[in-house]
């Protein structure tokens, strides 16, 4: 699929500051350093669209990227920080968590949630909290997709036991056992077509 243009258009910090121009949107959520920005760059064929941060936890806002503006398949990709359950004051964390839950429950243009998990670590405490937010708040009908990132560090192979850990975590949160689990690498572009298969859900009406 061709990405003709992609532009950073907004950094939202609350429901009130989300873009008012409604287009279909997909979001990428995951712990700091899991590879969100790198994956966005990979799927857009860009080098440094989403600034790849060397310092963990830099992105604190929902970063909106508008893809293919002025075409009938325009949509937003949203880079959502898995806010520092570390290094952020408690008040800020709970504000962020309630924004995230409202977003999952109320953003009617949301089509797909991609939840990135590091393939070296499997689901960590913060990932389980994200799954709990999905269970509790995600609007019915929104496609939820797990992405295991940095697979090049595992020679492109993700062990059956890691896949089982993901399946068990999904099961523990009453999330569908049919939730797709994709494997990607931003280094060698593994999994790009599979990600696009779900991105297309946002584009094709
Ligand atoms: P924050 O913006 O801090 O939340 O991080 P992020 O989730 O956007 O991660 P980012 O894309 O900045 O990547 C974090 C680090 O992991 C960088 O040093 C990347 O180069 C590296 N990285 C990301 N994806 C991959 C991958 O697929 N393979 C390898 N080997 N490294 C990766
Ligand atoms: Mg980032």
UniProtKB/TrEMBL annotation:
EngB-type G domain boundaries = 22-205
Please give the family membership noted in the entry. Answer: Belongs to the TRAFAC class TrmE-Era-EngA-EngB-Septin-like GTPase superfamily. EngB GTPase family.
Record's protein name: EngB-type G domain-containing protein
Which source organism does the UniProt entry give?
A: Nannochloropsis salina CCMP1776
């Amino acid at each position: 699929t061709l990405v003709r243009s992609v532009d950073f258009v907004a950094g939202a910090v609350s429901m009130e500051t989300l873009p008012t121009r409604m287009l279909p949107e997909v979001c990428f959520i995951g712990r700091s350093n899991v590879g969100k920005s790198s994956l966005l760059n990979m799927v857009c064929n860009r080098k440094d669209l989403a600034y790849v941060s060397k310092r963990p936890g830099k992105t604190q806002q929902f970063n909106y990227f508008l893809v293919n503006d002025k075409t009938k398949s325009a949509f937003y990709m949203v880079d959502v920080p898995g806010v520092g359950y570390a290094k952020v004051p408690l008040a800020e964390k709970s504000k962020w968590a309630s924004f995230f839950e409202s977003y999952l429950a109320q953003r009617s243009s949301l089509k797909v949630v991609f939840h990135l998990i590091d393939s070296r670590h499997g689901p960590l405490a913060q990932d389980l909290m994200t799954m709990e937010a999905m269970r509790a708040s995600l609007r019915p009908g929104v496609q939820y997709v797990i992405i295991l990132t940095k697979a090049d560090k595992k020679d492109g192979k993700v062990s059956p036991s890691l896949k089982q850990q993901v399946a068990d975590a999904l099961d523990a949160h009453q999330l569908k056992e049919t939730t797709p689990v994709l494997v990607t690498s931003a280094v060698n572009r593994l999994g790009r077509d599979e990600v696009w298969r779900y991105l297309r859900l946002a584009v094709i009406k």
